[in-house]
Every structure is written in C-alpha cells, then in structure tokens.
Write a structure and sequence with these properties.
The complex is a heterodimer. Chain A is mainly beta. Chain A has two helices and 29 strands. In chain A, 4% of the residues lie in helices and 47% in strands. Residues 247-325 of chain A have low confidence and may be disordered. Classes of the chains: A mainly beta, B mainly alpha. Chain A: Keywords: Cytoplasm, Repeat, WD repeat.
Chain lengths: 325, 800
C-alpha cells in the first residue's frame, strides 16, 4: 500500500510484505527512511497531521505507532484477533483507529499508556476492510456489505447496506458524501445524511482484490484502482463522460490509489485529455524503485496535478500532470 | 600684668592668676612651642589626635594613616602548601584601639543584661515597630514570622512566675473573685479632675454583662504601665497632629483623607513607638506638611493630591452634631467610626451594590439549663491503675470516661467500628472462629475454655453430626436432620435459592419439603416425595433435600452474608445481545437491486461512544449520563433461535480458514497471492456444505415455486465470507418431522407487500404464524430447542 503524506504531499509512504515501511520523497524518488518492526507484512500505514508520527498495521495482528524521526516503534497495540487490514489516525493523531479481519474496529489511545483499546466497534458481521476517520466520525467498510458510520457527536451509528463486500470507503472532502467501493466492480457515492445513492461508477474491474478508491482533492474526480492494472478516473458529476484510464496495461494490478492532498490550488481541474496524456506517458515520470522483491501492492495517488501509484510491478510511479499540461 | 613694685600703687589693682616666676639673670626667654609641635600623647606615648571630640581623640594606623609602621606587609602572611593562612573573619573590633572599647569609647564594653536574663515579656514597643515594619515592608507581613522563628527562651523570672501558676497576659497577684458590679458614676454627680484612662474604664465595662458564677476566681488584670510622659509641648490638651502614616506610607493615596477625625490614635501611637525604636526622630510634630526632605520615606512625596480627595461640602452632619464639629466628644466620634467600620471598603463588583440595610440577627435562644461554664473532664484510660484518681474524678464529674468511644481506634473491634460508622449490621449470625477449626482443636479449646463451653456446644453440634452422618434409613434421617436444621431453616426457601432449578418438579418438591420442614411437620415430609420413586430413590432424594437445605443455610448465613449479591446473576440461560440488529437483509438486497438506496438500506442505531474517545476527538459526549458503551444491549434467551441467528461469529473463522486453505491450494500455480476477498470461479461452483444443506431444504419446500432470488444468489456467489450471516437469516427446521420445513426469519415478520417475489407464500404464512407473537414463538423455541441443537450439530458434521 502507498500513502501520500496527508499534509503537503511531500512524502509518500509505502509498506509491503517485506515487513517494513518506507518513506520516500516522491518528487526526487529518493528513499528517506525504512521502518522495521513488524513481524508480518504491513497491510496499511498512515501519517499523522504533523508528519511526526506514523501508524501502521500488519498481518501480525498488531498496530504500531512510529516516530518518524527516530524510526522507532513508540507503541504497539495488540488486541486484534486477526490481520489488521486498515489503520487511520484521527485528526489530532491522538487516536489510532484500526480495522481488522476479526470484524472489529478498535480505537487505540496514543496519549495514555493503557494497552487496551478505548473502544471496540464490533458491529461488523465480517472483516473490516477499510476505515476512515473524520473530525467526529469513524467510517468503516466491511465485507458483510455494509458501510457503517459512527457519529461520535450525534451518538448514532448509521449502517448502509450495499450488498457486495466493501473493499474501500472514503469521505468526500466536503464531508457530505461517502464513497464506497465494493467487489461488484462498482463505486457508489452515497449521501452521508440520508444514505441515498448519488452516483455509481463502473467500468473498472474489482471482484477479487482489495482495491482502493479515492476522491480527488477538490471532489471533482473519483478514482479507483482496477484489476486490469489501470487507474480509473470518473468525473464526479458526469459519470458517463468522465471515464478515464491511466497507467500502463499489463503491468499488474493497481491496488491503492491515493488522492494527493497538497497543493490543490490549480484552478483548472484536470480534464480527461490531460489524464490521457498521463497515460500516454507524455509527462515526466519519476520512478521510485522499490527494493522489495515481493512488494505486492501498488497504489496511485491522484491529485489535480500529480498522480502516484505503486503496484505489482514493484515500482511506485509519480506523474506530474502539470508538467504535461 | 600686675606689678608688685609699690604697694601704694598696687592696692587698687585686681590681680588674676599666678605670677610667672621671675626671670633669672642671664636666662633666655623661652620660645613658644610652635603649633605643629603641640602634640598630645596617650599613656603609651602614642600621638593622640583630636578627632574624637570628647574622648580625648584617637589615632588610627600609623600617624593617622591607614598604614602600619611596616607599611602594608601583612604580618600573618603564611605561604605554604601544608599551612594555609587561617581565614580570619575580621570584625570592627579588629580595627579598634583599646580606648574605643573603654567606657567612653565608641564601643564600650560594659556589663549588660544578657539575653538570658532579659525579660521576654513582649516588648510593646518592639512589637509595634515590627507591626509597622510589616506593613511597610516590601512583602507585607513577613516580619510577623520572625516571632515564629525566634528562640523560645524564657527568662528565669517568667519561668518562676509560670511555676507559680501565672500565665501570659495575666496580672501578678492572688486570684480574685470578681468584684460586684462597679457603680457607674452617677451622671448627675459631677466628677472633677482627670478622666480615667480609657483602658481602665473599658475594662470595667466589659465585665458588666458577664455571668459570674460563685466559685470562679480570676487572675488579676494585667497592669499596663501608665504612660507618665510629661506634657512638654505647647499644644492644647488632646491635640493630635496629622497622622503621619498617611503621609509617609502612602495610605492617603488609597484612602479618603479624613481631616476631621483627627487621625487614628492607634497609628500615631505606633509611629511614636517606631520613632523610638528606630532611634531617630521623624520630625513630625503635628504640622500638616508631612515629610521633610531629609526623611527617607518620601516615596509618595510626588503623589498627586487631588482636590477630589477632600470634602468640599460639610455633609453628614446631623443637627445635633453641629454643636461639636470635628472636635466632637468621643461618644459622637465612636458612633461615627462604627458606621464607617461597617462599610465595605473594597471594590464593589459591577452589578452589585452595598446593602442599604444591615441585617442583624438575634442571638440564639439558650436552653434554660444552659450554664456558660465549661467543665473539664480529664480522660483517664480505663486501664489506668490510679484508682483513687479515677474515683475522685468520678465523683467530681459524675461520670467516668471509660466509654469505648474514647478508646483509640486500634483497640476497637470490627463491630464497634461498624457501630460507630453507622453501618448496617450484617444479616447472618456472627460466625465463630471455631467453625473453621478442626475438631481436635475444638476439643482442646473446649478443655481450655470451660466458660464458653455451653455456647460452643450449640454451634458445634450440627457440624459434628454432619461429619459423622451416615445415611442409615430414610425414616431416621428426617428426625436427625430436623433436629439440626431446626431454627436455621427460618428463612430457607423464602429466597430464590433453587438447587434443583434444572428439574422444576424436583424443585417444587424441594420447596414444599423445606416448607414443611420449617413448620415442623416431619411426618409430612415424605408426602412431598415422588410416589412413583422406589424406596431407595426416595431416601436418597430426601437426604439430598436435607443436604441442600443444610448447604443453603450454611452458605446463606456465613458466606452470603459476607458478600453482596452480584448485580447481574449469572443466568446461564440468558445472553446479552444488542437491542437493535441490522436485519432484513433480503429487503435491503432487493432495494439495492432496485438501486433504491436511502431509507430502505439504512439502519440507524443509538450508539454510545466511550467518553475517552469523545475527549480525544474533541467532541462532547452525546450521552453524558449513560454508562453504556456501544450499542444498547438487552437480555435474550440463550437458546432462542433468534440469538443463534445473530451469532455467526463462531462459524466465520472456520469457513474462512477452510476457504483460505482452498484458495491457497487453488492458487498454488498462480503468481499472485490471493486476497481473502478473492473468490475464484472454481470455488463458486463448489458449494459449501451448509449452503448445500440449505438449498436442499429449500428445494424441498419450493418444489413448485421459484426459489427466492436473493437466496440462491447468496448461496451461489458468496459462500465463503457472508455465508454465516445468510445462515443467520434462513434456517430451516423440520418441526414435527412431517417433512414440512419452516423458514424462520430473524425478526418480527413484516408484511411483505411484494408477495411471492422473494419468498414462498406458504412458508411465509406458517412462519408468520410462528413468529408474529413473540411469546408464542419463544415457547415454540423451547420445544424446538433440541431441533436447533440438532441442526447445529448437523452443520458441524457436514462441515467437517
């Protein structure tokens, strides 16, 4: 999996089955730091708002909190009964929210030294595949086909039935919608308040793997990885028009596209043609060669002007759309 | 110069002094000693200089220089590694000559009273000086602590006085009875002469109101030394100058300068004392122009005096007072001062105002027999051997304090402490330690303690007999048992102790048995036993009942009295399940198919976040009063079909594991590591055993009709992960073994308007008749319990 740094996009973070996390500079393609400490493959990682801490989760059933500068594990949270598939910081990096195959979402306290989770959200009937945190909500997608939104402020649990196992969920940047990707090769944009379907995005293939979906920084585009090795982008509103593919076919499966947060100041949103240019590799391409031989996953980071992907071809790619334009 | 040459001439001359000796012949006239050679030397031949005005002068150093004869060579200079020059602390005396230390020197060494013999009675002057210094100091009040640090030396005189019974603040002399009320001078009788000092008259006034018991004597009043300072100034009698503290210490800036009260006497007194103690004159003698330029305390000299601080109008003068003005007699002044004292000087908060009426409260009503005399009751410990003292005390106070209330808490036992703390008494009988002892020990104890034997016997008897008890026959047993149980069964059976809850009939029999046992109907005991049992069985059951009753008694009285009952009983038949459940998946399935997201697909639950989590998220706790975390839970029957339907967790892992294994096998040759979401086509074809079971069941039911669409799809495509929940929704039961299957749904059946689309009508009817009434369904569940278990077992068998 690959994560862009949530603050400015100046770093990107990869983790994989070599049990390590790697911090990269996506612009120069240099490896900044490697974090060792997990016993099995690292399934997800996230960075704190101030770039000072990382959290990661692994198939060794643990969730780890890292200090970026020293590279040491600050805390290790044990308690999940199975592989921990997803992890997120909350807004102030005081709580780590992790979802596991054991069908629970656990909230870990980073402040205190207590070993137990603050709260266990065990409403899911099956493994939790994806979890996201907003300022007052925890969003979890589960294989039981439900998107659950725990609203801490209202003290309510909203459970939306999608049917097909959910692989990835994410909030829209305006906080009004929820995007859910499921194994029926469909992305659904649901209204957060009512649960109504606002948009459905199809065309990619997602039936087997846990592929990520993403909304662009300004909620203009919906992106998803696909099993045909491409990254798909849709225009958020005009679904039929906006289908775009990127990445080279035949190079493997893309799993973790990531919206690039930072410099979203480009007034002109990317158009389809611009994405095509990307796919045609007219843009400047930086290759971040990963040293891991069996890095299984690849992600893409899509921003207004930058796309980033890592995948089965053991490469992390960064496209600079602005250069192309 | 008187001439003695002729008497006649000299008679009228006056001569002074002695005449100079006549000059010798040929003698030269002495030259006068020049001024620079006129020196004065001391006894040791040292030159004296006229520096000291009256002490004969002194010289310092070498010819009044600071040096010595040797110059500046220090005589005590030692330079060596081993010996270092002693560090001498030089005091002023080291630079003084002997004359300085003599009687008239600057540091005379004469005999003075040492500290040990100085009176430690509080020096009023010093006290006041200290008080003032405390007010003036940078940190007010610090000097007050000097008293605390000061050495506690008591002079011999004070010590002696104390031994004689004197206490500080008392006067010296024999204890006196209070004098009868002193007559107030008759106002009509004119008294001439000086008024009494205010201190004396006030003191007498204080005594007037006091209640005076007969046998109480008082120490004489401490006599304050009368200030006999003669009046040396030319001011009028009673003249008091401007209060210099206001000018000096900056109080005037804060306070309204009241020119007309004449200043407070206290502060002027204090300052007078301060003046003495500091050994210098402040130079304030009553003129209104406070501080001289040479005074040190001229900090506030540039403080701006505004006219607003002064009264521009003579106000607050009552008509009668106009006669007196500011030189009013004391009565008027004191009245005024009282008023000002009541006033609140501090800053009044915005929105508040001073109360116009000062509310006064009446003194409390005293009980009729109240005597304002405190009797000391010295506490003598009960164990004290001083018998006579105790006796005397008993007589004097009428009460000997050997109460347990006065004992230290360590000597109390638990029950005494409990009584004192007001805790409730334990329900069970106080257990004796003997009950926990072995028989031998008890035997031994018995021999040792003859006195408590009787009491012990009662308690030991049932236990001994219990140990030795051998069931001989059913007929003997009741008598024996009843003898022992007798009164102990008083509350047995009344509570919810149910040893035979599993077997309701037996329990019923047991309860009636206990009832009869309590009532003493030993003959009736056997009536409650099951007549269909054999003799031996009956005997056994009877014994069992006895034992149960016994057990209940012992556990109830000794153990359960020590422990509080658990709030939630360990009810094995009940299980906590979430109150609200996500359900009606088939409804939602159809809604999803029709893309009718929204209300149909959404479930909304009350969810309680942990308080800490809210704190970490900077979100107010939505349910600040609730202790629930997560979804609210309710208790349901454990062996209810509904609960089984909602607890698929146990089966998840198994199916998952098997699936993963299969997946691994399937994907051995493929390079990609499959994820757990991966469902290969092969697997889709291979149906899980449970789904097979279900589909088989369904096919039996739905012979004529189409099988439910969502069901088949679920069974076909999502066998691996989602299956357990599917099993949860659909469960087929062969209720009466007649071949009809019932499809039970998790929740209350909704009236499906779209009949026949998803469900079999026939089965729906029957299932609704089963589940519509929850109580009916529950009773059904009890009967179908075994069936359920069987179906579960079937599942497990087919899986493995």
């Amino acid at each position: 999996p690959l994560k862009a740094n949530p603050v400015d996009g100046n770093y990107c973070l990869t983790c994989g089955s070599d049990k390590s996390l790697k911090l990269w500079n996506p612009h120069k393609g240099t490896l900044l730091r490697t974090y060792h400490g997990h016993g099995y493959e690292v399934l997800d990682a996230a960075g704190s708002f101030d770039n000072s801490q990382l959290c990661s989760c692994s198939a060794d059933k643990t969730v780890a909190l890292w200090d970026v500068a020293t590279g040491q594990v600050v805390r290790k949270f044990r308690g999940h009964a199975g592989k921990v598939s997803c992890v997120q910081f909350n807004e102030e990096a005081t709580v780590i929210v992790s979802g596991s195959i054991d069908s629970t979402v656990r909230c870990w306290d980073c402040r205190s030294r207590r070993p137990d989770p603050v709260q266990v959200l065990d409403e899911a009937k099956d493994g939790v595949s994806s979890v996201k945190v907003s300022d007052h909500e925890i969003l979890s997608g589960s294989v039981d086909g439900r998107v659950r939104r725990y609203d801490l402020r209202a003290g309510q649990l909203y459970s939306d039935y999608v049917g097909s196992p959910i692989t990835s969920v994410c909030f829209s940047k305006d906080g009004q919608c929820v995007l859910a990707a499921s194994l029926d090769s469909t992305l659904r944009l649901l209204d957060k308040d009512t649960g109504e379907l606002l948009g459905e995005y199809t065309g990619h293939r997602s039936t087997t793997y846990k592929l990520d979906c993403v909304l662009s920084e300004q909620d203009t585009h919906v992106g998803s990885a696909s099993e045909d090795g491409k990254v798909y982008f849709w225009d958020l509103v005009e679904v039929s028009r906006g289908l775009t593919k990127t990445a080279e076919p035949g190079e493997g499966i893309l799993r973790h596209p990531q919206a690039h947060p930072g410099r979203g100041c480009d007034p002109r949103p990317p158009t389809c043609s611009r994405w095509r240019m990307l796919s045609a590799r007219r843009s400047k391409t930086t290759r971040v060669r990963s040293s891991l031989p069996e890095m299984m996953s690849r992600s893409s980071v899509a921003r207004d002007s930058t796309a980033l992907a890592c995948g089965l071809w053991l490469l992390t790619r960064v496209w600079a759309a602005a250069e192309a334009a | 110069m008187a001439a003695e040459s002729s008497d006649s001439e000299e008679e009228d001359l006056v001569s002074y002094g002695s005449a100079l000796p006549a000059l010798q012949e040929g003698e030269r006239i002495k030259k006068p000693v020049p001024l620079q050679e006129q020196t004065v030397k001391d006894g040791k031949g040292r030159y004296q200089r006229f520096h000291g005005a009256f002490t004969g002068g002194f010289s310092a150093g070498y010819f009044n220089t600071v040096g010595t004869k040797e110059g500046w060579t220090p005589s005590s200079f030692i330079s060596s590694r081993q010996k270092r020059a002693d560090k001498t602390i030089l005091g002023p005396e080291d630079f003084m000559d002997e004359e300085d230390l003599s009687e008239f020197g600057i540091a005379p060494k004469d005999i003075t009273t040492t500290d040990d013999f100085a009176s430690k009675a509080k020096d009023r002057i010093k006290e006041k000086a200290r008080q003032i210094a405390g007010v003036v100091a940078a940190i007010p009040g610090t000097t007050a602590f000097d008293d605390l640090i000061g050495p506690s030396k008591i002079t011999i005189g004070v010590e002696l006085l104390r031994k004689m019974g004197w206490k500080e603040g008392q006067g010296i002399g024999p204890r006196i009875k209070r004098k009868p009320l002193r007559q107030k001078p008759d106002p009509q009788v004119k008294v001439y002469g000086c008024a009494l000092p205010p201190g004396l008259s006030e003191g007498s006034e204080d005594e007037e109101d006091e209640y005076q018991p007969e046998n109480v004597t008082f120490a004489p009043k401490d006599v304050m030394p009368v200030d006999l300072t003669p009046k040396e100034d030319v001011h009028g009698l009673g003249y008091k100058g401007l209060d210099p503290t206001q000018a000096l210490f900056g109080i005037s800036g804060r306070e309204h300068l009241n020119l007309f009260t004449g200043g407070s006497e206290k502060t002027s007194d204090l300052l007078g004392d301060l003046r003495h103690s500091k050994g210098r004159k402040l130079g304030i003698t009553g003129q209104a122009f406070g501080v001289g330029a040479l005074e040190e305390e001229d900090d506030d000299i540039y403080a701006t005096e505004t006219l607003s601080k002064y009264d521009t109008v003579l106000k607050d003068e009552e008509p009668g007072d106009g006669l007196y003005g500011w030189t009013a007699p004391k009565q008027y002044k004191s009245k005024k001062r009282f008023e000002t004292e009541v006033k609140y000087i501090g800053k009044i908060l915005d929105g508040f105002s001073l109360a116009s009426k000062s509310s006064t409260y009446p003194p409390p009503d005293l009980p009729r027999d109240y005597r304002p005399v405190h009797y000391f009751r010295p506490v003598i410990a009960a164990g004290n051997e001083n018998y006579h003292l105790r006796k005397a005390l008993e007589q004097s106070t009428g009460k000997l304090e050997n109460d347990t209330t006065q004992q230290s808490r360590h000597t109390l036992n638990a029950s005494q402490r409990r009584d004192r703390l007001g805790e409730t008494v334990l329900k069970g009988p106080a257990p004796s330690v003997l009950e926990y002892l072995s028989e031998k020990d008890r035997e031994r104890l018995k021999e040792v303690k003859q006195a408590s034997e009787q009491q012990m016997k009662v308690k030991m008897l049932p236990q001994q007999s219990q140990n030795r008890f051998q069931p001989t026959s059913a007929n003997d047993a009741p008598h024996k048992w009843q003898m022992f149980l007798g009164g102990q069964l008083a509350n047995a059976g009344s509570s919810d102790f149910k040893p035979f809850a599993r077997n309701p009939e037996k329990q019923k029999r047991y309860e009636s048995f206990v009832q009869s046992l309590k009532q003493g109907q030993k003959d009736m005991l056997e009536h409650y036993l099951d007549p269909s049992m054999t003799e031996w069985e009956r005997g056994r059951e009877q014994e069992e009942f006895f034992r149960a009753a016994m057990f209940y008694k012992s556990s109830n009285s000794t153990l359960s009295s020590r422990f509080t009952r658990a709030k939630y009983e360990d009810d094995v038949d009940k299980v906590e399940v979430p109150r609200d459940q996500e359900n009606d998946i088939d409804d939602k399935e159809s809604a999803v198919k029709m893309k009718m997201f929204g209300k149909l697909t959404r479930d909304k639950f009350e969810w309680h976040p942990e308080k800490l989590l809210c704190k970490r998220f900077n979100v107010p706790d939505p349910y600040p009063d609730s202790s629930i975390v997560g979804l609210p839970k309710v208790k349901r029957d454990k062996y209810s079909v509904f609960n089984f339907l909602t607890l698929p967790e146990a089966t998840t892992s198994v199916t998952q594991a098997t699936n993963e294994r299969i997946q691994q096998n399937n994907n051995l040759n493929s390079k990609l590591k499959p994820s757990r979401w991966d469902v290969s086509d092969k697997e889709k074809e291979k149906k899980d055993s449970i789904s097979e079971f279900i589909s088989l069941a369904r096919s039996k039911v739905d012979i004529q009709q189409q099988p439910p669409v969502p069901m088949t799809e679920e069974c076909g495509t999502e066998t691996n992960e989602t299956l357990p929940s599917e099993v949860g929704t659909w469960l087929c039961l062969n209720l009466k073994g007649n071949g009809t299957f019932f499809f039970l749904q998790k929740k209350k059946q909704k009236k499906h308007k779209n009949k026949g689309k998803h469900k079999n009508k026939k089965s729906e009817k029957e299932s609704s008749s089963d589940t519509e009434d929850s109580s009916d369904s529950l009773s059904d569940m009890d009967t179908t319990e075994n069936l359920l278990k069987r179906s579960q077992i079937l599942q497990w068998i087919t899986r493995t």
